[in-house]
Amino acid sequence: MKKIEKRKQKIVKEMPIGEIFNKFPSKAMKLADVMLGEGLNCVGCGASNFESLEQGIIGHGMGKDKLNEILKKLNYILDEPDIEGVVLTDFAAEKIKQIINDEGKVGSYLKIGIVEDGGAGNKYKLNFVDEKKNNEDVLECKGVKLIYGKEMKEKLDGVEIDYVEGTQGTGFRFSNSNASKLCG
User: Fold this and answer.
1) Which of 65, 82, 99 is at the close of a domain?
2) In terms of C-beta density within 10 A (0-12 exposed, 13-18 middle, 19 or more buried), how is residue 92 classed?
3) Gyration radius (Cα) of the chain, Å
4) Which residues pair with 163 in a beta bridge?
5) Which terminal residue of the chain has fewer beta carbons within 10 Å of its beta carbon, N or C?
């Protein structure tokens, strides 16, 4: 996994919400997850093009403390290096280890698969397997053995697997900083 240098720009409260996603497209999914998880549901709204982050937060009944907390989370994401390869967040790795122990899958590989959807991206699937095939690569990330078909390496480049719990659902989320490069 190759890490790319950290960003110098920051998100400020005066930025229009839509501009945040335009300025930081490789982080857009994670930024949206934070905003939606905090109840800032104007992420996809037409007002997001002119409404500042501060206006959105105040408009949703949250105060200055919540604004500062969300800004801190968003800028933390910007400080995370872009990646090449597949990476697990700390939370995802811990959840996978918990599932491995709970289901008696110690020693198994977590296989990453891709379900082509023909649209603007891919859907991903996870399952446990006991053995590696010759046409598969293994990557150990944070104590979890990931396995995937060698032919999928390019499509998995830049994929981050996270585990989220929030109002928008609970489960593993895949974000791919290179998704726009994969589309035709």
Assistant:
1) 82
2) buried
3) 18
4) 172
5) C
- Strand-by-strand arrangement of the 109-116 sheet: 122-129, 109-116, 144-149, 136-141
CA distance 72 to 179: 26
Considering the domain architecture, whether residues 11 and 67 belong to the same structural domain is answered as yes
Residue 175 and residue 99 share a domain: yes
| Residue 160 Cα distances to 13, 15, 69, 137, 179, angstroms | 27, 26, 23, 17, 11
Last residue of a domain, one of 30, 51, 82: 82
Q: Which pLDDT score, from 0 to 100, does residue 27 have?
A: 80
CA-based torsion, 171, 139, 159, 123: positive or negative: negative
Question: For the residues of 107-161, what is the DSSP string, one character each?
Answer: T-EEEEEEEE-SSSSEEEEEEEESS--TTEEEEEETTEEEEEEGGGHHHHTTEEE
At residue 162, the 3 state secondary structure works out as strand
Please give the residue range of the domain that contains residue 28.
2-82
What pLDDT does residue 5 have? 45
DSSP 85: S
Sign of CA dihedral 65, 68, 70, 72: negative
Mean pLDDT by 10 residues, the chain (184 residues): 55 92 81 86 78 91 93 88 75 94 93 72 86 89 89 81 82 72 33
Question: What global pTM score does this model have?
Answer: 0.55
